[in-house]
Amino acid sequence: MHYLVTGHTGFKGAWLTLLLERLGHTVSGLALDPAPDALYTRARLADVLEHDLRVDVRDGAATAAAIALVAPDVVVHLAAQPLVRESYRDPRTTWETNVNGTFNVLEGIATTPGIRAALVITTDKVYRNVDQLWGYRETDPLGGVDPYSASKAAADLLTQSWIASSGCTVPTAIARAGNVVGGGDVCNDRLMVDLVAAFSAGQPVRLRYPHAVRPWQHVLDCLNGYLTLVDALLDGRHAGEAFNFGPGTRSFVEVGVLAEEVACLWGPDSVVELDDAPALHEAGLLALDARKAELRLGWRDRLGLHDTLAWTVAWAQRTLGGEDARAVTQAQIDDFRRLDGVDLDGWR
Ligand SMILES: NC(=O)c1ccc[n+]([C@@H]2O[C@H](COP(=O)([O-])OP(=O)(O)OC[C@H]3O[C@@H](n4cnc5c(N)ncnc54)[C@H](O)[C@@H]3O)[C@@H](O)[C@H]2O)c1
Fold first, then answer.
1. Least buried of 171, 224, 277, 307, by fewest C-beta within 10 Å?
2. Whose CA is nearest to atom 12 of ligand 1?
């Protein structure tokens, strides 16, 4: 099977590329240049890709031409401006990338013959946040205050409208997941990235929003959900639907609690300071109800909070110790595949 991953130079895209390659698939990618020190570069992804394209998804003609050139069996659309604070700084780029970019990818899919399935990745932040204690379900209303959340909600609605109105016959679905962590993320303004950078430099960490509760999920659990849904699409099931892929409630913890646990895992002299000063609006509690994915797809989160953090710390410490980033990533992929109940060999 030939997969086209948009956003393959980013965090999730790089893990997905290596996971698909490990499963024996052909993989191509379409994205902007990687950030400095990105997993894409550290794991030498260019060597494993069939086509490694630099295309701005805001450019409709270039995006359509790239998808036609690759002629994939499956498209997973991850490319986005994915950061809340950056979306306040540059709302135009955020809206154009997340909404127009998604439109252009969908149009490219519709005009390229032979594509058998498409998956559009949005986020838990698409839900209109009413600070409820229980998880959001796929049928809850969408919304968003900051430009990132609102633009991803718009991309989600756009995809729903596209599926219903465009006449495109490629089975397409939407996947919504929340904060994911794992080795090799370099995005600024992400807690694990800040923690790893500070602890590895022997510096204290000062936390924004220490009491905000977030669900924490390992990137492989999230990608397992994406590929399980692709598999269902290829089997003729669940086209046109949205699915949440979030961890169980035991993985919902305060930012401050999570940071303390990572500090313990990292080792002595890891210091966390809490910053309670008012900051830009960011959603308080945001949890997903993933029962639809559990019941309809047989997916469930495998790693749990402790292992999610331990695997992420282990990835950082092993690569800091000189181990090859691709080898460490592949080893964790292989460990994940051996976990009880993970049926990755069923993926096509
Ligand atoms: N990482 C998370 O915790 C998280 C949580 C929820 C949803 N998501 C979603 O997952 C997807 C991937 O996120 P990530 O964490 O890997 O982000 P990332 O910033 O690491 O990667 C983003 C990717 O998108 C590409 N991109 C950005 N603008 C582009 C453009 N104009 N044209 C082409 N490519 C462009 C980048 O080159 C990069 O490859 C996004 O859609 C994001 O909204 C991520």
1. 277
2. 78
Comparing 277 with 82, the larger pLDDT belongs to: 82
Among 11, 221, 286, name the best residue to mutate to test ligand 1's pocket (greatest count of ligand atoms within 8 A of Cβ). Answer: 11
110 alpha carbon – ligand 1 mean position (Å): 22
Specify the CATH architecture of the domain 2-181+217-247+287-309+336-346: 3-Layer(aba) Sandwich (3.40)
**pTM score over 0.90:** yes
Tell me, in angstroms, the distance from the centre of ligand 1 to residue 31's CA.
9
| Nearest CA, atom 4, ligand 1 | 179
Amino acid letter, 237 = R
- Tell which one of 6, 30, 32, 191 to mutate to probe ligand 1, the residue whose CB is within 8 A of the most ligand atoms: 32
From the CA of 6, give the closest atom in ligand 1.
34
- pLDDT for res 342: 61
- Contact (Cβ atoms closer than 8 angstroms) between residue 172 and residue 118: yes
Percent of the chain exceeding pLDDT 70 equals 95
So where are the chain's domains? 2-181+217-247+287-309+336-346
